[in-house]
Amino acid sequence: MTDHIDNLRRIVGESNALDRDADIHPFLEDWRGQLKGSTPLILFPINTDHVQRIVRYCYENNVKIVSQGGNTSLCGANVPNSSDHQIEIVINTSKMNKVIDIDPFNRSIIVESGCILQNIQNIAQEHDLLFPLSLSAEGSCQIGGNVSTNAGGVNVLKYGMVRDQVMGIEAVLPDGSIFSDLKSLRKNNTGYDLKQLFIGAEGTLGVITKVSLKLSSSPINEITSMVSVESVEDAITLLKESKTRFGDNVAAFEFISQSCLVAIDEFLEHISLPLGCDASWQIIFEVINHDEGSLSDFLEDQVKKGLICDALIAKNKKESNDIWLVRHSISEAEKSSGRGVHHDISLPIRKISEFLDQTIPAMEKIVGRSVVYTFGHLGDGNLHLTKKQPDNMNGVDFMNYSQEINAVVHENAEALGGSFSAEHGIGSKLKNDLVRFSDPIKIELMKKIKKSLDPKNIMNPDKLIDP
Ligand SMILES: Cc1cc2nc3c(=O)[nH]c(=O)nc-3n(C[C@H](O)[C@H](O)[C@H](O)COP(=O)(O)OP(=O)(O)OC[C@H]3O[C@@H](n4cnc5c(N)ncnc54)[C@H](O)[C@@H]3O)c2cc1C
Q: What single-letter DSSP state applies at residue 84?
């Protein structure tokens, strides 16, 4: 093993490798710190050539590889699991963060995979363009991680998921060869669209080194509002009404339960929430390319109809940021409030209410009463649901019930035509559910693809799918 570590370290140089326990520690767990692993070595390649030499070495010597971006995974997809039987080294792409080309005529950008999402958004903005992918972890997640998880976020309603933004990919394959399809073309009908294989593959088919992305027009105008409603049904009716009125100019429709608002209020100690936290549900509703007057008229109508209880429209960027701060603080607030069993499911929108009516009591039956955090991208039918540890139960006992809780949530979602995994992916956490809820032919095809691209199973083994 020492030989391998020395040889791999030499490829990137001493300053681009970590092998001391104290240094390695931050790279061993998922964002929530619930899934932990181990590795003898973290490598920080600075270019595709480094990645290629590392992967070739690993292929020839049967060393396993876990690719890492910003380590914000919520399903353990980024966690290495070295053991006495196998070494899993980490390739962390943070030092591959160059912008290779931005083309305002073509509305495209080519970047290295370690570029932080927020930096890509900022660069697009400097050219009066928009890179629409936006999520609470945007200050630390990297585009390689976003592509590998087919990330979603708050603007999917208008712009789609990452898959809709990708025009090209360069990736180092498990045998060290380079798949290069970096053309920035919106039309390119030339047989199998192989880049799609790497989108959502969670690092199991290769290491993404560069990505070509579509950019969109910056909206002429962007108006953010915060609205409170009494029930999920009212939120869903408001979504329908707003789509009828503003069509594709509804850019975000996020909903947040009162339990989340209370947790955020405690977490953001010195900041008052824009609409307080008395309402059962609040919605962040963003409309683009319309003036404030049209949104205000629309909201007034909905108040008159009794659909919404209260509403506030941001008058400027600061007020808009204050509203979004509420949304972007949920995961941190939740994390700081202690243990929970987390879910990321999607449903046909009209089934959301039925799902919650079935599932919240069903979770209560398993572990008793406790806080449930519900929030998510309502416009996409995507719910994040967390069952908190009951006050009268110890942590170990509670976690022993986690599989039972997951089962009921995932079964109910699937039974209503939904999915047990909406946007965070599979990782190590949901591997069994993938097999359980998928068409067997799909699983067979996935295995065939994995075996044919990665015959030695060196890329992120034990995640997503077993060959
Ligand atoms: C507060 C918070 C909010 C979040 N909100 C959302 C949300 O709204 N929508 C959403 O979809 N997700 C969300 N996530 C989940 C997470 O941010 C995304 O999955 C993100 O895309 C992961 O990017 P990363 O760079 O952190 O990847 P990592 O966590 O480092 O890795 C994730 C996966 O990608 C693989 N990978 C990383 N880089 C590469 C590469 N170069 N080549 C091949 N494989 C690679 C890893 O092996 C792993 O399988 C959130 C997470 C947090 C902590």
A: S
